[in-house]
Amino acid sequence: MVEEDLKQAVALFYDGELAPTITAKGEGATAEEIIAIAQEHGITLCENQPLLQLLMTLELGDHIPEDLYIAIAQIISFAYHLQGKEPEIVN
Length: 91
Hints:
Elements: E1 2-3, E2 8-13, E3 21-27, H1 29-40, H2 49-56, H3 69-82
Antiparallel strand pairs: 1-2, 2-3
């Protein structure tokens, strides 16, 4: 999640099993570094200030709360779509 005007960023890790986890967050130069690393690795960025503000209140290593599951799932789904990926179907 990125909000460039505020120079804040939050990075999430999602393994497809557990709820996404906060792996990095920061403001100013730290946010710019998080964004640069994501761009270098082709990671999809999403700008959503209200969601970013909620995620900034979490601590590193925290799983996202259930209240945010749908919002984060929609972002992950969109990122997969942009990359031409499809979720694995489990029978």
